[in-house]
Amino acid sequence: MKKLPLEIRLSAFMDGEMSRDEKEELEKLIASDPEARRILDELRHGSDVGRKAFDEVLKEPVPLALVRSIKSAQPPKSRDASPRLARPSFKLAPTGRQSLAAALILFVLGGGIGYLFGMQPADVPAATPLTPAQATMRNWLDDIAAYHRIYSRQPRHMVEMQASELDEISKWLSGTVGVKFNFPDLAADGLVFQGARMFIAGGKPVGQLIYKNLDGDVVAVCFTRTEGVANNSNFDETIKDDVSIVSWYRDGATYAVVGPSSDAMLDQIAKRVSSEI
């Protein structure tokens, strides 16, 4: 019987998918043949690179639109079962040779993908670096998500000033943050104003108005002074693990509405805030 190419045999050797005699034969070949060792090293390197690339894909956050579409999806309507013609059962039972051929094809594909990743030239251009404005915005969003994750779980110390101190809150945050604002009325969204606080995000003071619904979910309205950024009527949605942020620019300030990523109405709340703040 004709032997398979050395690359396929070495790929099967890495995965432990061969008989004991074949394994011993390949071990002797690897020990004595530099070319076999070189191919094995490349396959191993390619496999490692391919696995790391796949792991990076798995780290990507779930898109906010997908989370909301799943949350707001309606269950399928039940319908009366209609009689159907019975179909003859069909059972797929591949032969031993077919199973072996399929397994070898999968080995070649898996090793080949990793091999191609590993053999890419070292001088491939790196990803385009972020501009200073983009880097600042990313840091700002990261800080907001981190602060919200902490403060939203503080039942007794969630705010620095209570909702009854509207005049003092307005003077304090306007003077410190440098952004004039109104207090959005979010009662139509089931949110009750709790109070305000101030924190630092992206190296700048940020004002935060905090609201809560009957379920105890916290939604915060954040704003900070931003110079040199054009107005942007688009709402940018970002997910940071369990926290969602909808942000926009206007009149020299950056605004954001922050809440749980499971809140399907966060973009609607942001639109209301944008029109009232």
How does this model look, in words?
It comes from Rhizobium lusitanum. The chain crosses the membrane at residues 100-118. This is Anti-sigma factor RsiW. Keywords: Membrane, Transmembrane, Transmembrane helix. There is one protein chain. This protein is an alpha+beta fold and 277 residues long. Among the domains are: 6-59, no CATH class; 161-276, MucB/RseB, C-terminal domain (Phosphorylase Kinase, domain 1, 2-Layer Sandwich). It has eight helices and seven strands, in the order ααααααβαββββββα. The protein has a seven-stranded antiparallel sheet. A hairpin with a 5-residue loop joins strand 3 and strand 4 (218-225). Helix 1 (6-14) packs across helix 3 (34-59), helix 2 (20-32) crosses helix 3 and helix 3 (34-59) crosses helix 5 (96-118). The chain is elongated, with a radius of gyration of 29 Å. It starts with 5 loop residues before the first helix and ends with a helix. The relative contact order is 0.11.
